[in-house]
Amino acid sequence: MEYYLGVDVGSVSSDFVLLDKKHNVISKLYLKTQGQPIRVIKDGLKLLRDKMPSDGCVAAVGTTGSGRDLAGVMVGADIVKNEITAHAVATLERVPDVSTILEIGGQDSKMIIIRDGIVTDFAMNTVCAAGTGSFLDRQAGRLGIPIEQFGEMALKSTTKVRIAGRCAVFAESDMIHKQQMGYDPEDIINGLCEALVRNYLNNVGKGKEILPKVVFQGGVAANVGIKHAFEEALNCEIYVPEHHEIMGAIGAAILAQEAVESKGRTNFRGFDLVDMDFKTKSFDCNGCANQCEVVQIVADSEIVARWGDRCGKWHNALQKKKQRDADKAMA
Fold this sequence. Notes:
The chain is an alpha/beta fold. It has helices at 37-51, 68-75, 83-94, 133-143, 147-155, 168-180, 185-203, 224-234, 247-263, 313-330, and strands at residues 2-9, 13-19, 25-32, 57-64, 79-80, 100-104, 109-115, 118-125, 214-217, 238-239, 278-284, 293-299, 302-307. The radius of gyration is 22 Å and the shape is globular.
């Protein structure tokens, strides 16, 4: 059996998925990155290897997310794509009549506008954490409420409470103030959900034509309080797809399958890469006035990738060396 691997490495979480040829999800993982992408990539692949059927093999692998380049080098990706493309591909495959995608992750959020099956516009917010999952996690911890119960409590609200949502610092201060005034936790939590949605629409959604069908995905889509707040603000039904938390990884796997079908082979390193020692090193290039910081990825003492040189000097030199080594191996 051939399976297609998708890896989405983000700043807060990293997602892994195995699809079959018909794009059914065979196995999936949702792990905390915790500032250690190399470790979490290796851990994720170990777990997937143990879950994969004994007669299965990885026929293609794709990476996406903020750590997509690093992940791509480690796993030997057949395709490395940005989050906008990966999310759009997965959503169109799952929900063909989608017009608007709302995606809120742990550290950033995005909106993708689709018309007639084509991405026509998009926006991302990476400046303020007030509209992201990490902010909700932090406030849930401060209130002593499990994040899994956050949405359900918001739906029990009976009194409207407006929380300042334009800034994470102001929002937290306003929540404390509302607590001191004696508002019920349910009302404060609902006010926070509404503030997050208001902040998202005023920033990420500014100037965008939001039309149904609206699909909500990302880790925060599991929060029914946020979903309800979006439905009230947009006055339409919000659809949360199955596997909403790993849509980026699903899109990467689908794109990888297409890439391998086109070129006829995969670059996947194999699961043995979990035993390799990957390190990131850097040096300053003094070749010109730019003085670029060149980042190197080293696997078991071998340099496998270089980034950061604006002129491409170091990257191109490495690619030429790889080609020479490949030619020698084939001779």
